[in-house]
User: Fold this.
Amino acid sequence: MGKIFQLRTKVKLNNKIGPGFTFNVPSVWSSGHPDNSEIRKALEAIGGNDATSMSDWASHKYEIIA
Assistant:
């Protein structure tokens, strides 16, 4: 059973997504953080394929809000 994580970016990820961008990521995980493929899928749904560059998980890139 998973959950929906709400993430906020801490840094500029690419030319579409900068710091302070908040988005939801459905995940199979109930704790920790969503995996890279889940983050990419959520960002592609919002900003298209080129929104996923530099989107892999790193604690200096994302703050988990919920």
